[in-house]
Amino acid sequence: MLTRLKKLHTPDIETLNTITISKENILNNIKSIEKLQPNSQIFPVLKSNAYGHWINQILKIIKGFSFPYIVVDSFPEYQIIHNQSKFNILLLWETLPKNYQYFDTKRTTFAIYNIETLKYLISLNKKIKIHLFLNTGMNREWIQKNNLNTFLELVKNNKKIELEWVMSHLHSADEKWEESILKQITLFKTMFEIIKAKWFSPKWKHIWASAWMIKINDSFFNARRPWLIFYGYSPFWNDEKINLDLKPALTLNSTIISIQNINKGEWISYNQKRIAQENAISATVPFWYYEWRLRKLWGKLFYYQNNVPLQQVWTICMNLSCCIANKKINLWDKIELIWIDKNKKNTIEYIANQAETIPYEILIRLDKGIRRTII
Fold it and tell me: I want to staple 255 with a disulfide (CB 3.0 to 4.6 A). Which of 16, 31, 136, 327 is the partner?
């Protein structure tokens, strides 16, 4: 009743910037992932706020699926999935030991790579499922081969700790095949044999994220952690030889909030550094580096209005940016900042290339305050 009353008295405010998530495209990507390796399970990665797509929205789209686990980074992300779905949850990264007491251990599995964390979980005296995160060569964290037995002995001597998983991570996502990747896979299998020798039989074995589940099919591994391809982005987006049926799900529209007639020789925005080389019409949108984009990208990107590309120009401000417009543009018109048509110059991949980074970094920088909707 209280919720209904709040809705009645809450104004329906239309936002100037809106991110739209395509349900149809997410479902298409899931089907494509399932076809890649049909004999292994999918653990969708919703960490980093579902790569900028918003965990809440993705949960609404996938609520009818029976994925064994949803993968997240942190306790706040765990809370969203726990409270808004019935999925079991894999906490991929660490939290402070004292925080583990607040998790629902019936629905949560913990990635373990610190001996202190394992000891703390044992001290809780609860039935807890874990997976061991093996270091196969990245050397960032995780369990080394030479101390694996220490972890195994602790688990073996405590009947309430269940070793359900074994996993690792490959060192690159979009490189060509390298012998070092093969060495990582071989080391994983060697360490798994050590685990088996201790009379453990973990249910899940996984090392694949998006890139290598496309390139390698090894029946030894029975689970996968799709990240970018789940949202429609191939790690090999610039490799025409790899043709996957993936459809990006995220688009972003903004609104024209000002139109200025600029005379040749006049300056625009900060510092009087950007001078108009000819008479022009400038259109302003309320989107730039506060919402996400980098200041250094000025002049390198394009917006679209009615399929017409409009180059972004002049100094980028905290909340505003401008583009060269035409006489057909009107105040309050909608304008595309990110789109899914690969032939346009406002795709996530194009923007990432201009920023000299990867699509993942562009996606996760989309400000959490931008409204997300599902179509």
Answer: 16
Quickly tell me which residue has 């990006």 as its tokens. Answer: 248
- What's the average pLDDT block by block, 10 residues per block, for the chain (375 residues)? 58 88 96 89 93 95 95 94 96 89 95 93 95 86 90 92 87 68 89 90 82 78 88 72 81 95 83 77 87 81 93 82 88 95 92 90 90 94
* pTM of the complete model: 0.90
Q: Is 3 helix (H, G, I), strand (E, B) or coil?
A: helix
Q: Are residues 226 and 282 in the same domain?
A: no
Q: How many domains does the chain have?
A: 2
How far apart CA 143 and CA 121 sit, in angstroms, is 17
Residue tagged 């969708």 (tokens): 44
Task: Identify whether residues 43 and 103 lie together within a single domain.
Answer: yes
Cβ(136)–Cβ(188) under 8 Å? yes
CA distance 21 to 273: 38
How far is the CA of 201 from the CAs of 69, 152, 165, 217, in angstroms? 19, 12, 9, 22
